[in-house]
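Recall that a protein's primary structure is simply its ordered list of amino acids. Everything else, from secondary elements to tertiary packing, is in principle encoded there. The following example makes that idea concrete.
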Amino acid sequence: MQKNDNILNLLREQGVEAARKTQRGLILQPGAIGDCILTLPLAKFMKDSLGLGVIDVLGHTEYIGILPGRSCIDSIRSIDSMDLHRLFAETKAFDLADGDPLINAFADYTWIVTFLGEPNSSFEQNLIFTANCSHSAEVITLSMKPPKEFCGHLTDFYIRQFIEQSGLSLESRKIEPDQILIKATEADMNRGKELLKEINIDFGKKPIIIQPGSGGLNKCWHLDNFLSVAKELYSKDVEVMFLLGPAELDRLSKTTIKKISSIAKCLSGLSLTQVLGLLSCADGFLGNDSGITHLSVFGPTNPVVYGPIGSAVTVFTKKSTAFAKRPSPSLQKKILKTLITCSG
């Protein structure tokens, strides 16, 4: 009899565990690539702590399209594919009919975390109402930016917020410094090699990639700094190339782009998947506070909170108001030393 009870208990436990693993979580992340990357530790925490089988992200596909198959994210959904603006209506005026597309959009999820809307807002209340029209679901709204007095990393802030609002006894987890959030696939690496081949980069010397732009002008190290670093690397027989994204192409004149091209080879207009493949073939990356940064030069942004994650990341800071306005030879020397070590 006791043996049968033990078998039944084991089967129940296995059934409960199997049921948990079929549960799905959703993160609404309307931000750009950097915001999406810094959301990944939260997604991993939710998956592990709640025993969720699937975590999806709802956002802008041009930023989140690289996540499935390369991170803890299982699938993505386009934020433009549904009428989320309806959720911003006053709660009293918000209503849903049977079979409403919004109900179906959230019907598969037991946990929903949103960076869209504010805590206790009409959006949050309407999202809770919508999610619970079909089943019981937990909805948590997180703040995108921490308060000024916060001194930890942004990923810790997200996880702490989630724990506090979930009402569960969960143990917070700090991100490991060597944790890999996005791992390039073999196909990505092959794509990167093809791009380097197109511009005749020597495969015997993995390149140092430089991206001189960022979303905010005040976060961009003066362009002459990047050009000086590139010239010095080139003089030491280090292969260098510039990656020009939308920020650079929008702001830099044709004359400036021509000047950059006279110093090192350039690639522009790449998709995020192509950029990932390119970075997987590089010895180092030098950039500003931007979503793609691996080796960062931080100006007015606090690297303790917003710094990039990885075992091979070096963050250089310079809080001077001249960061974006004129060259900084002393900082150039520090960065050169690190980059030359990378390429050695």
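The CA atoms of residues 298 and 317 lie 5 Å apart. The chain has a mean pLDDT of 86.
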